[in-house]
Give the backbone structure.
Amino acid sequence: MHLVRDVLDQKLLDREDCEMGRVDGLVMKVGERSQPRITHIQIGGTTPWMRLHPVFARLAAKLARMWGPKRADPVRIPWSRVMTVGRDIKLDVKARETGAIDWEIWIARHIIERIPGGGHEEEG
Amino acid sequence: MKKALEITLGIVTSVGGFLEIGSVTTAVQAGAAFGYHLLWAILLGTVCLIFLVEMSGRFSAVSRHTIVDATRERFGFPFFAIVLVGVVLVFFMVLVAELGGIGLSLQILTGIGFPWWAIPVSFAVWLLMWKGTFGLIENGASILGLVTISFVVAALKLNPDWGAAGHGLLPGLPGDDKAKYGFIAVSILGASISPHLMYFYSSGAIEDEWDKTYIPINRFIAGFGISFGGVLSMAALVTAALAFQPNGVEVDTFEQSALLMTTAFPKWGFFLFAASMLFTCLGAALETSLAIAYFFAQGFGWSWSEDLTPSKNARFCFTYTIIILLAAIPLLVGIDPIKVTLMSMALTAATLPLAVLPFLFLMNDPIYLGEHRNGWVSNTVVGITILISFVLALIAIPLQIIGG
Amino acid sequence: MDSALSWIGTAGMAGDAWLRQTTPDTYARQTLELSHQNLRQISNDLLESPPLGPDSAYLNTVLARSRRRIARLAALITAKDAPDFARELDLLRADQRIVKRLSDKIESEE
């Protein structure tokens, strides 16, 4: 598997095919005598902005702490939860429980649902 | 039967969706100032757009990705962020221009100034996106946009000199006012080769669940539909040449443009023009708002679809809501939509490489397209047109600014 | 001078359309007022840097007369006086031809 080509920046889906964002970063464990291996996928937070420049990461963190679900830390999903790597990466998780769609839920509940016709994000 | 209906609707979309304030304004300016001499710019832009739209549909049908998905995945977040900023800024200006076009159409019909229309028009556009489905937006606005066929009828009624028009299909330099000629040529190219159509079409192919069996249909839709759209644009130029040049009118304002078809259709010309601009700008405003929201949603991996209720794709809906709100502000404070149009068209031409070059790489990537990759013809046509547009823009924009 | 001709031409086309009752009154009046404003600006610019030649003063006179005609046309729309409007429009067209002739002459002398 080619990590940069096949994993990094790929779209993530949960076990119900709900969009969870993209692979913004990978956490690897480097041992003294063992091969480096991926331990976690990182989603959101300051991870993508850090790839641009630390200035953007600091700005993103500041804004994230002021507004919305008020979390600046990225979501980490263990690599063991990866089911398939193909057109998208499917994970054996429920998106809502991971924190990956906290912003989606917050905007839905605090803004979208308050506008007539917005519906309810928990409806089937 | 389903595919036959889709072909019809696809062509309608291409025809009705091609014209908007940019293509009409630039074509009318060109015809009034230089007669038939800028027909080649519309032809070049149309040919390039045919290839780009066909490629967009083919890419999504085969790879089951949108162009934005693939840009992020193939080139990484840092490159994607640069494209996002550049492209979205230009799209935003285009959205301001389209909303302004709707406002100006209502202004000439009612006498009420366009700043007063900024909020109602923005609200109407937002409401259509909030409540409407992708099919309603794609097809509804395009069917209404077919009123622009009146441009072709007007051009034919005025008995153009076909020989001179044919001559205009070949590039040439004017005798005088080269800076203005170059700027209008660049603006025509920017108006014709609209990247937002690429992203919109690609997203539409995914919304409509296209697969490889749609490749021949896609080719037909792109070729026939966009060609006819190009013909509409050329008809606007020819009509302008025949209506305005004999009266010595150089078109600089929307009020002047509104007289475009009053010679060909003494009774209905004014209202046909107003209706044409109203519907085409509405369609373009919807497409551009969607294109911006698609860019964010697809790039960041949010859920997105015009067919879901808003709370099911909250960030996507929130994005287009904010964008439309922000786009109303320049109009509220009275910034001239025509000036925004001309500058946004020229900037589109200047930033085409940012949108199209990564796309050309993707179209040659066997991982996404396998045997359906681009051939040398597509690569050459698109590559050369983008180069011409970019070079012209680099020369013409500063000249126009200096020339005032 | 091309701009002056353009705005006189615009006023003429808008006037023709109004006479045929094919445009709203507000549009026709606003377009005439826009033509008037732009012509005034062009006349001021020409006064500051006048073209060379003996016809320059006469050109200014004709432009000023065109402006007055356009202002009168806008007022006649409010009064809905079509016969006077038609007469004034013919006179404006005549002025347009004079401006064209003078403008071509000045350009050839330059």
User: Anything to note?
Assistant: The first helix of chain C runs from residue 2 to 19. Chain C touches chain B through 23 residues (CB under 8 Å). The two ends of chain C are 13 Å apart (CA to CA). Chain C has one domain: 2-109.
